[in-house]
UniProtKB/TrEMBL annotation:
It is found in: Cell membrane. It is a multi-pass membrane protein. The chain crosses the membrane at residues 91-113, 133-152, 164-185, 200-222. InterPro entries: VANGL. This is Vang-like protein.
Length: 505
Protein backbone atom coordinates (compact mmCIF):
# COMPACT_ATOMS: atom_id res chain seq x y z
CA UNK A 1 0.00 0.00 0.00
CA UNK A 2 1.20 3.53 -0.77
CA UNK A 3 0.57 6.95 0.74
CA UNK A 4 -1.20 9.23 -1.64
CA UNK A 5 1.35 11.82 -2.72
CA UNK A 6 2.32 13.90 -5.69
CA UNK A 7 5.96 13.00 -5.11
CA UNK A 8 7.71 9.65 -4.93
CA UNK A 9 5.60 6.91 -3.40
CA UNK A 10 6.61 5.55 -0.03
CA UNK A 11 5.78 1.88 0.59
CA UNK A 12 4.28 0.93 3.94
CA UNK A 13 4.21 -2.73 4.97
CA UNK A 14 1.29 -3.92 7.05
CA UNK A 15 2.16 -6.29 9.86
CA UNK A 16 4.98 -6.56 12.36
CA UNK A 17 7.99 -4.64 11.20
CA UNK A 18 10.67 -2.16 12.17
CA UNK A 19 10.87 0.72 9.72
CA UNK A 20 13.88 3.04 9.45
CA UNK A 21 13.65 6.54 8.04
CA UNK A 22 16.48 8.99 7.46
CA UNK A 23 15.13 12.52 7.74
CA UNK A 24 16.83 15.78 8.58
CA UNK A 25 15.62 18.12 11.29
CA UNK A 26 13.86 20.35 8.75
CA UNK A 27 11.25 17.67 8.04
CA UNK A 28 10.17 17.16 11.63
CA UNK A 29 7.61 19.96 11.62
CA UNK A 30 5.49 18.34 8.89
CA UNK A 31 2.25 16.67 10.08
CA UNK A 32 3.01 13.35 8.43
CA UNK A 33 6.16 12.83 10.44
CA UNK A 34 5.23 14.68 13.64
CA UNK A 35 3.82 11.50 15.21
CA UNK A 36 6.96 9.44 14.73
CA UNK A 37 10.03 9.19 16.95
CA UNK A 38 12.64 10.79 14.73
CA UNK A 39 15.99 12.38 15.43
CA UNK A 40 18.02 14.51 12.98
CA UNK A 41 20.36 12.66 10.64
CA UNK A 42 19.93 9.32 12.37
CA UNK A 43 18.54 5.94 11.41
CA UNK A 44 16.15 4.89 14.18
CA UNK A 45 13.00 2.79 14.34
CA UNK A 46 9.59 4.42 14.42
CA UNK A 47 8.56 3.05 17.81
CA UNK A 48 11.69 2.82 19.98
CA UNK A 49 15.38 3.04 19.27
CA UNK A 50 16.04 -0.66 19.73
CA UNK A 51 15.33 -3.72 17.59
CA UNK A 52 14.12 -5.85 20.48
CA UNK A 53 11.88 -3.10 21.80
CA UNK A 54 10.16 -2.43 18.49
CA UNK A 55 9.94 -5.97 17.15
CA UNK A 56 6.22 -6.23 17.91
CA UNK A 57 5.34 -2.85 16.43
CA UNK A 58 2.24 -3.05 14.26
CA UNK A 59 1.43 -0.44 11.63
CA UNK A 60 -2.24 -0.08 10.70
CA UNK A 61 -2.33 1.25 7.17
CA UNK A 62 -5.09 3.18 5.49
CA UNK A 63 -5.77 6.21 3.37
CA UNK A 64 -3.78 9.12 4.77
CA UNK A 65 -5.17 12.62 4.87
CA UNK A 66 -1.66 14.10 4.64
CA UNK A 67 0.93 13.64 1.95
CA UNK A 68 4.57 14.59 1.70
CA UNK A 69 5.79 15.56 -1.73
CA UNK A 70 8.84 17.28 -3.12
CA UNK A 71 6.95 20.59 -3.20
CA UNK A 72 6.16 20.22 0.51
CA UNK A 73 9.80 19.56 1.30
CA UNK A 74 10.84 22.68 -0.61
CA UNK A 75 8.19 24.74 1.20
CA UNK A 76 9.31 23.44 4.60
CA UNK A 77 12.92 24.28 3.81
CA UNK A 78 11.87 27.78 2.75
CA UNK A 79 9.98 28.27 6.01
CA UNK A 80 13.07 27.29 7.97
CA UNK A 81 15.17 29.67 5.93
CA UNK A 82 12.70 32.45 6.75
CA UNK A 83 13.14 31.69 10.45
CA UNK A 84 16.76 32.82 10.12
CA UNK A 85 15.42 36.27 9.34
CA UNK A 86 13.48 36.25 12.59
CA UNK A 87 16.69 35.52 14.51
CA UNK A 88 18.40 38.45 12.75
CA UNK A 89 15.47 40.66 13.73
CA UNK A 90 15.82 39.61 17.36
CA UNK A 91 19.55 40.31 17.37
CA UNK A 92 18.94 43.67 15.69
CA UNK A 93 16.57 44.68 18.49
CA UNK A 94 19.17 43.66 21.08
CA UNK A 95 21.86 45.64 19.25
CA UNK A 96 19.70 48.78 19.10
CA UNK A 97 18.88 48.43 22.81
CA UNK A 98 22.57 48.13 23.68
CA UNK A 99 23.44 51.19 21.60
CA UNK A 100 20.70 53.26 23.21
CA UNK A 101 21.77 52.13 26.68
CA UNK A 102 25.39 53.10 26.02
CA UNK A 103 24.34 56.52 24.75
CA UNK A 104 22.23 57.10 27.86
CA UNK A 105 24.98 56.04 30.28
CA UNK A 106 27.81 57.86 28.51
CA UNK A 107 25.97 61.15 28.04
CA UNK A 108 26.36 62.40 31.68
CA UNK A 109 30.03 61.44 31.60
CA UNK A 110 30.47 63.34 28.34
CA UNK A 111 28.86 66.40 29.92
CA UNK A 112 31.50 66.31 32.66
CA UNK A 113 34.54 65.54 30.45
CA UNK A 114 34.02 67.85 27.45
CA UNK A 115 34.65 71.14 29.34
CA UNK A 116 38.00 69.79 30.58
CA UNK A 117 38.98 68.85 27.03
CA UNK A 118 37.80 72.01 25.19
CA UNK A 119 38.40 74.94 27.56
CA UNK A 120 40.23 73.69 30.67
CA UNK A 121 41.97 77.02 31.39
CA UNK A 122 38.75 79.03 31.71
CA UNK A 123 36.96 76.72 34.14
CA UNK A 124 36.48 77.78 37.71
CA UNK A 125 37.78 75.54 40.43
CA UNK A 126 35.35 72.93 41.70
CA UNK A 127 34.71 73.23 45.44
CA UNK A 128 33.67 70.69 48.04
CA UNK A 129 30.01 70.78 47.00
CA UNK A 130 30.98 70.13 43.39
CA UNK A 131 33.15 67.17 44.37
CA UNK A 132 30.24 65.75 46.38
CA UNK A 133 28.13 65.91 43.21
CA UNK A 134 30.75 63.72 41.50
CA UNK A 135 30.08 60.99 44.06
CA UNK A 136 26.33 61.41 43.56
CA UNK A 137 26.64 61.06 39.78
CA UNK A 138 28.85 57.97 40.11
CA UNK A 139 26.49 56.10 42.44
CA UNK A 140 23.37 57.14 40.52
CA UNK A 141 24.87 55.91 37.28
CA UNK A 142 25.80 52.61 38.92
CA UNK A 143 22.24 52.20 40.24
CA UNK A 144 20.83 53.13 36.83
CA UNK A 145 23.11 50.62 35.11
CA UNK A 146 22.02 47.78 37.39
CA UNK A 147 18.34 48.77 37.09
CA UNK A 148 18.46 48.89 33.28
CA UNK A 149 20.24 45.53 33.17
CA UNK A 150 17.66 43.92 35.49
CA UNK A 151 14.62 45.27 33.63
CA UNK A 152 15.56 45.32 29.96
CA UNK A 153 18.52 43.02 29.35
CA UNK A 154 16.80 39.75 30.15
CA UNK A 155 16.64 36.72 27.84
CA UNK A 156 13.59 37.10 25.60
CA UNK A 157 10.79 34.69 26.43
CA UNK A 158 9.22 34.75 22.98
CA UNK A 159 9.34 36.45 19.61
CA UNK A 160 6.35 38.76 19.10
CA UNK A 161 4.87 39.46 15.66
CA UNK A 162 4.54 43.20 16.39
CA UNK A 163 6.54 45.69 18.41
CA UNK A 164 5.97 46.07 22.12
CA UNK A 165 4.16 49.41 22.20
CA UNK A 166 5.10 50.54 25.71
CA UNK A 167 8.72 49.51 25.31
CA UNK A 168 9.00 51.35 21.99
CA UNK A 169 7.33 54.38 23.57
CA UNK A 170 9.83 54.39 26.44
CA UNK A 171 12.78 54.04 24.05
CA UNK A 172 11.48 56.96 21.98
CA UNK A 173 10.97 59.04 25.12
CA UNK A 174 14.52 58.35 26.33
CA UNK A 175 15.97 59.15 22.91
CA UNK A 176 14.07 62.47 22.67
CA UNK A 177 15.01 63.30 26.25
CA UNK A 178 18.74 62.73 25.66
CA UNK A 179 18.65 64.67 22.37
CA UNK A 180 16.95 67.58 24.13
CA UNK A 181 19.65 67.63 26.80
CA UNK A 182 22.37 67.49 24.14
CA UNK A 183 20.73 70.34 22.22
CA UNK A 184 20.54 72.53 25.32
CA UNK A 185 24.10 71.56 26.27
CA UNK A 186 25.42 72.48 22.86
CA UNK A 187 23.67 75.84 22.69
CA UNK A 188 24.08 77.07 26.27
CA UNK A 189 27.38 75.46 27.35
CA UNK A 190 29.50 74.44 24.35
CA UNK A 191 28.90 77.58 22.26
CA UNK A 192 29.35 79.98 25.14
CA UNK A 193 32.05 77.89 26.85
CA UNK A 194 30.50 78.32 30.25
CA UNK A 195 33.06 78.78 33.02
CA UNK A 196 30.79 77.67 35.89
CA UNK A 197 31.82 74.03 36.17
CA UNK A 198 29.66 73.44 39.25
CA UNK A 199 26.60 74.42 37.21
CA UNK A 200 27.66 71.93 34.49
CA UNK A 201 27.95 69.18 37.08
CA UNK A 202 24.49 69.99 38.45
CA UNK A 203 23.18 69.86 34.87
CA UNK A 204 24.59 66.33 34.50
CA UNK A 205 23.08 65.35 37.87
CA UNK A 206 19.66 66.57 36.73
CA UNK A 207 19.96 64.37 33.63
CA UNK A 208 20.74 61.29 35.72
CA UNK A 209 17.81 62.05 38.05
CA UNK A 210 15.46 62.35 35.09
CA UNK A 211 16.70 59.03 33.69
CA UNK A 212 15.99 57.37 37.05
CA UNK A 213 12.44 58.70 36.96
CA UNK A 214 11.99 57.38 33.43
CA UNK A 215 13.17 53.99 34.64
CA UNK A 216 10.55 54.13 37.41
CA UNK A 217 7.95 54.89 34.72
CA UNK A 218 9.17 51.85 32.78
CA UNK A 219 8.66 49.63 35.85
CA UNK A 220 5.09 50.93 36.24
CA UNK A 221 4.18 50.42 32.58
CA UNK A 222 5.97 47.13 31.92
CA UNK A 223 5.67 45.29 35.24
CA UNK A 224 3.21 46.79 37.72
CA UNK A 225 0.38 47.65 35.33
CA UNK A 226 -0.34 44.02 34.48
CA UNK A 227 -0.31 42.61 38.02
CA UNK A 228 -3.90 43.40 38.93
CA UNK A 229 -6.20 40.93 37.12
CA UNK A 230 -8.93 42.43 34.94
CA UNK A 231 -9.80 39.61 32.53
CA UNK A 232 -10.50 35.89 32.75
CA UNK A 233 -9.26 33.97 29.70
CA UNK A 234 -10.70 30.56 28.81
CA UNK A 235 -8.22 28.49 26.78
CA UNK A 236 -9.59 25.43 24.96
CA UNK A 237 -7.62 22.98 22.83
CA UNK A 238 -9.42 22.37 19.56
CA UNK A 239 -8.79 18.63 19.30
CA UNK A 240 -9.66 17.10 22.68
CA UNK A 241 -11.35 20.06 24.39
CA UNK A 242 -8.85 20.38 27.27
CA UNK A 243 -9.64 23.67 29.03
CA UNK A 244 -7.85 25.96 31.47
CA UNK A 245 -8.69 29.41 32.86
CA UNK A 246 -6.23 32.22 33.53
CA UNK A 247 -6.68 35.64 35.11
CA UNK A 248 -4.60 38.34 33.44
CA UNK A 249 -4.19 42.08 33.76
CA UNK A 250 -4.22 44.81 31.15
CA UNK A 251 -2.10 43.24 28.44
CA UNK A 252 -2.03 43.41 24.69
CA UNK A 253 -3.26 40.41 22.71
CA UNK A 254 0.24 39.30 21.71
CA UNK A 255 1.59 39.54 25.27
CA UNK A 256 -1.45 37.66 26.58
CA UNK A 257 -0.72 34.98 23.98
CA UNK A 258 2.83 34.65 25.32
CA UNK A 259 1.56 34.24 28.90
CA UNK A 260 -0.95 31.61 27.77
CA UNK A 261 1.69 29.60 25.91
CA UNK A 262 4.04 29.73 28.89
CA UNK A 263 1.29 28.28 31.08
CA UNK A 264 0.16 25.83 28.39
CA UNK A 265 3.32 23.75 28.57
CA UNK A 266 2.97 23.21 32.33
CA UNK A 267 -0.83 23.07 32.78
CA UNK A 268 -2.19 21.20 29.76
CA UNK A 269 -1.64 17.45 29.35
CA UNK A 270 0.50 16.49 26.41
CA UNK A 271 -1.35 16.38 23.11
CA UNK A 272 -1.83 12.75 22.07
CA UNK A 273 -3.18 12.40 18.52
CA UNK A 274 -3.49 8.63 18.95
CA UNK A 275 -6.34 9.13 21.43
CA UNK A 276 -8.36 10.98 18.78
CA UNK A 277 -8.37 8.18 16.23
CA UNK A 278 -10.82 5.98 18.14
CA UNK A 279 -13.94 7.86 17.04
CA UNK A 280 -12.74 8.01 13.43
CA UNK A 281 -11.99 4.29 13.35
CA UNK A 282 -15.38 3.54 14.90
CA UNK A 283 -17.17 5.62 12.26
CA UNK A 284 -15.15 3.96 9.51
CA UNK A 285 -16.08 0.54 10.95
CA UNK A 286 -19.77 1.41 10.78
CA UNK A 287 -19.51 2.59 7.19
CA UNK A 288 -17.43 -0.44 6.23
CA UNK A 289 -20.17 -2.71 7.54
CA UNK A 290 -22.72 -1.20 5.15
CA UNK A 291 -23.21 -2.53 1.66
CA UNK A 292 -25.07 -0.71 -1.12
CA UNK A 293 -26.83 -2.86 -3.73
CA UNK A 294 -27.70 -1.56 -7.16
CA UNK A 295 -31.36 -2.48 -7.71
CA UNK A 296 -32.15 0.15 -10.36
CA UNK A 297 -29.61 -0.92 -12.91
CA UNK A 298 -26.22 0.47 -13.71
CA UNK A 299 -27.30 4.11 -13.85
CA UNK A 300 -27.47 4.65 -10.07
CA UNK A 301 -25.53 7.77 -9.16
CA UNK A 302 -23.04 8.20 -6.39
CA UNK A 303 -25.36 10.64 -4.66
CA UNK A 304 -28.08 8.01 -4.29
CA UNK A 305 -25.54 5.58 -2.86
CA UNK A 306 -24.42 8.15 -0.35
CA UNK A 307 -28.00 8.80 0.68
CA UNK A 308 -28.58 5.10 1.12
CA UNK A 309 -25.52 4.74 3.32
CA UNK A 310 -26.54 7.77 5.43
CA UNK A 311 -30.03 6.35 5.87
CA UNK A 312 -28.67 2.95 6.87
CA UNK A 313 -26.27 4.58 9.32
CA UNK A 314 -29.17 6.52 10.84
CA UNK A 315 -31.14 3.30 11.33
CA UNK A 316 -28.18 1.76 13.12
CA UNK A 317 -27.74 4.79 15.33
CA UNK A 318 -29.91 3.35 18.08
CA UNK A 319 -27.59 0.37 18.57
CA UNK A 320 -24.31 2.28 18.25
CA UNK A 321 -24.29 3.33 21.91
CA UNK A 322 -24.21 -0.32 22.96
CA UNK A 323 -21.15 -0.93 20.81
CA UNK A 324 -19.49 2.16 22.28
CA UNK A 325 -20.27 1.04 25.83
CA UNK A 326 -18.86 -2.47 25.38
CA UNK A 327 -15.84 -1.14 23.46
CA UNK A 328 -14.95 1.27 26.27
CA UNK A 329 -15.56 -1.37 28.91
CA UNK A 330 -13.26 -3.80 27.08
CA UNK A 331 -10.59 -1.12 26.74
CA UNK A 332 -10.75 -0.29 30.45
CA UNK A 333 -10.48 -3.99 31.30
CA UNK A 334 -7.38 -4.34 29.13
CA UNK A 335 -5.83 -1.20 30.65
CA UNK A 336 -6.39 -2.50 34.20
CA UNK A 337 -4.92 -5.87 33.24
CA UNK A 338 -1.82 -4.33 31.63
CA UNK A 339 -1.45 -1.95 34.57
CA UNK A 340 -1.52 -4.78 37.11
CA UNK A 341 1.11 -6.73 35.17
CA UNK A 342 3.29 -3.65 34.87
CA UNK A 343 3.09 -2.84 38.59
CA UNK A 344 4.04 -6.41 39.53
CA UNK A 345 6.91 -6.50 37.02
CA UNK A 346 8.35 -3.19 38.24
CA UNK A 347 8.08 -4.16 41.90
CA UNK A 348 9.85 -7.45 41.24
CA UNK A 349 12.58 -5.65 39.29
CA UNK A 350 13.14 -3.13 42.09
CA UNK A 351 13.48 -5.90 44.67
CA UNK A 352 16.80 -6.90 43.09
CA UNK A 353 18.30 -3.45 43.77
CA UNK A 354 19.90 -2.76 47.13
CA UNK A 355 21.63 0.45 48.06
CA UNK A 356 24.84 -0.36 49.88
CA UNK A 357 26.94 1.80 52.14
CA UNK A 358 30.56 2.41 51.26
CA UNK A 359 31.87 0.37 54.17
CA UNK A 360 29.68 -2.58 53.23
CA UNK A 361 30.63 -2.63 49.56
CA UNK A 362 33.88 -4.45 50.35
CA UNK A 363 31.97 -7.18 52.20
CA UNK A 364 29.36 -7.68 49.48
CA UNK A 365 29.65 -10.83 47.46
CA UNK A 366 27.51 -9.57 44.56
CA UNK A 367 28.48 -7.17 41.80
CA UNK A 368 28.45 -3.45 42.57
CA UNK A 369 27.12 -1.32 39.70
CA UNK A 370 26.42 2.34 39.16
CA UNK A 371 22.77 3.47 38.67
CA UNK A 372 23.04 3.43 34.87
CA UNK A 373 24.28 -0.15 34.75
CA UNK A 374 21.67 -1.22 37.31
CA UNK A 375 18.91 0.35 35.19
CA UNK A 376 20.14 -1.47 32.09
CA UNK A 377 20.27 -4.73 34.05
CA UNK A 378 16.71 -4.67 35.40
CA UNK A 379 15.04 -2.98 32.43
CA UNK A 380 14.58 -6.16 30.31
CA UNK A 381 12.48 -7.78 33.06
CA UNK A 382 9.90 -4.97 32.89
CA UNK A 383 10.28 -3.91 29.26
CA UNK A 384 7.59 -6.19 27.80
CA UNK A 385 4.96 -5.28 30.40
CA UNK A 386 5.75 -1.58 30.02
CA UNK A 387 5.60 -1.79 26.24
CA UNK A 388 2.21 -3.49 26.25
CA UNK A 389 0.80 -0.98 28.72
CA UNK A 390 2.06 1.99 26.70
CA UNK A 391 0.65 0.51 23.51
CA UNK A 392 -2.72 -0.13 25.15
CA UNK A 393 -2.91 3.41 26.50
CA UNK A 394 -1.52 4.82 23.21
CA UNK A 395 1.52 6.42 24.83
CA UNK A 396 4.23 4.49 23.01
CA UNK A 397 5.24 7.51 20.88
CA UNK A 398 5.75 9.67 23.98
CA UNK A 399 8.41 7.52 25.65
CA UNK A 400 11.56 6.22 24.03
CA UNK A 401 13.61 3.38 25.45
CA UNK A 402 16.48 5.75 26.21
CA UNK A 403 14.24 8.16 28.14
CA UNK A 404 12.76 5.28 30.16
CA UNK A 405 16.20 3.99 31.09
CA UNK A 406 17.31 7.49 32.08
CA UNK A 407 14.23 7.88 34.28
CA UNK A 408 14.87 4.46 35.80
CA UNK A 409 18.49 5.38 36.56
CA UNK A 410 17.29 8.65 38.11
CA UNK A 411 14.88 6.78 40.40
CA UNK A 412 17.58 4.31 41.42
CA UNK A 413 20.05 7.11 42.16
CA UNK A 414 17.61 8.94 44.43
CA UNK A 415 16.34 5.75 46.13
CA UNK A 416 12.79 6.20 44.83
CA UNK A 417 10.06 3.58 45.10
CA UNK A 418 8.52 1.62 42.21
CA UNK A 419 5.36 3.72 42.56
CA UNK A 420 7.38 6.89 42.01
CA UNK A 421 8.91 5.36 38.88
CA UNK A 422 5.51 4.31 37.49
CA UNK A 423 3.83 7.65 38.11
CA UNK A 424 5.29 9.10 34.90
CA UNK A 425 3.63 6.37 32.83
CA UNK A 426 0.39 5.63 34.67
CA UNK A 427 -0.79 9.25 34.49
CA UNK A 428 -0.45 11.65 31.59
CA UNK A 429 1.79 14.54 32.53
CA UNK A 430 2.13 18.09 31.21
CA UNK A 431 3.80 18.84 27.93
CA UNK A 432 7.13 19.91 29.43
CA UNK A 433 7.52 16.48 31.07
CA UNK A 434 8.32 14.99 27.66
CA UNK A 435 11.16 15.78 25.29
CA UNK A 436 10.87 18.49 22.67
CA UNK A 437 11.05 15.89 19.93
CA UNK A 438 7.72 14.53 21.25
CA UNK A 439 5.58 17.65 20.91
CA UNK A 440 7.47 19.68 18.27
CA UNK A 441 5.60 22.93 19.00
CA UNK A 442 8.39 25.33 18.13
CA UNK A 443 6.39 27.91 16.20
CA UNK A 444 2.92 29.27 16.92
CA UNK A 445 0.70 31.49 14.79
CA UNK A 446 -1.49 34.15 16.37
CA UNK A 447 -4.81 34.67 14.57
CA UNK A 448 -6.91 37.63 15.68
CA UNK A 449 -9.45 39.92 14.07
CA UNK A 450 -8.33 42.81 16.28
CA UNK A 451 -4.83 44.23 16.15
CA UNK A 452 -2.41 42.15 18.22
CA UNK A 453 -0.99 45.33 19.79
CA UNK A 454 -4.40 46.39 21.12
CA UNK A 455 -5.37 45.61 24.69
CA UNK A 456 -7.64 42.85 25.86
CA UNK A 457 -11.36 43.61 25.92
CA UNK A 458 -14.48 41.82 27.00
CA UNK A 459 -15.43 39.31 24.29
CA UNK A 460 -12.05 39.28 22.54
CA UNK A 461 -11.43 35.95 20.77
CA UNK A 462 -8.15 34.89 19.21
CA UNK A 463 -6.46 31.63 18.19
CA UNK A 464 -3.00 30.24 18.79
CA UNK A 465 -2.33 27.73 16.04
CA UNK A 466 0.45 25.18 15.69
CA UNK A 467 0.90 22.19 13.42
CA UNK A 468 -1.55 19.67 14.88
CA UNK A 469 -4.07 21.77 16.80
CA UNK A 470 -5.01 25.26 17.92
CA UNK A 471 -5.83 26.97 21.20
CA UNK A 472 -9.05 28.98 21.17
CA UNK A 473 -8.90 31.85 23.68
CA UNK A 474 -12.05 33.65 24.85
CA UNK A 475 -11.78 36.76 27.01
CA UNK A 476 -14.28 37.69 29.73
CA UNK A 477 -14.03 40.74 31.94
CA UNK A 478 -13.95 40.08 35.66
CA UNK A 479 -17.15 41.63 37.07
CA UNK A 480 -17.10 44.52 39.48
CA UNK A 481 -17.71 43.26 43.01
CA UNK A 482 -19.76 45.37 45.41
CA UNK A 483 -19.51 44.40 49.08
CA UNK A 484 -22.02 45.59 51.63
CA UNK A 485 -21.64 45.54 55.38
CA UNK A 486 -24.35 44.41 57.75
CA UNK A 487 -24.12 44.84 61.51
CA UNK A 488 -25.25 41.94 63.70
CA UNK A 489 -26.17 42.76 67.27
CA UNK A 490 -24.28 40.44 69.67
CA UNK A 491 -27.40 40.26 71.85
CA UNK A 492 -29.27 38.49 69.06
CA UNK A 493 -27.14 35.37 69.62
CA UNK A 494 -28.50 34.72 73.11
CA UNK A 495 -30.91 31.80 73.59
CA UNK A 496 -33.09 30.50 76.40
CA UNK A 497 -33.15 26.80 77.27
CA UNK A 498 -36.49 25.65 78.71
CA UNK A 499 -36.25 22.39 80.59
CA UNK A 500 -39.16 19.97 80.85
CA UNK A 501 -39.47 16.88 83.02
CA UNK A 502 -40.54 14.74 80.07
CA UNK A 503 -37.39 15.45 78.06
CA UNK A 504 -33.96 13.85 78.56
CA UNK A 505 -32.24 17.25 78.96
Amino acid sequence: MYLKSTGPKVPIIEGRFTCYINLSHSYLSHPIVSNFSLFPHALIPLSFQDDNWGETTTAVTGTSEHSLSQEDIVRISKDLDDSVGLDCKRYLNVALSVILGLVVLLTPLAFLILPHLLWPDRLRTCGTACEGLFISVAFKLLILLLAVWALFFRPPRAGLPRIFVFRALLATLVLLFVLSYWLFYGVRILDSQDEDYQGIVQYAVSLVDALLFIHYLAIVLLELRQLQPFFSLCVTRSTDGATQHYNLGQLSIQRAAVVILENYYKDFPVHNPAMLTASKSRAAKHLAGLKVYNVDGEFTTTRSQSRAMIAAAARRRDSSHNELYYEEAEHERRVRKRRARLVVAVEEAFTHICRMQEEEQKKASGDVMDPREAAQAIFPSMARALQKYLRTTRQQHLHSMESIQQHLAFCITNNMTPKAFLESYLTTGPTLQYGKDRWLARQWTLISEASVTSGLKDGTIFLLKCIDFSLVVTTKKIPYIQLAEEFIDPKSHKFVLRLQSETSV
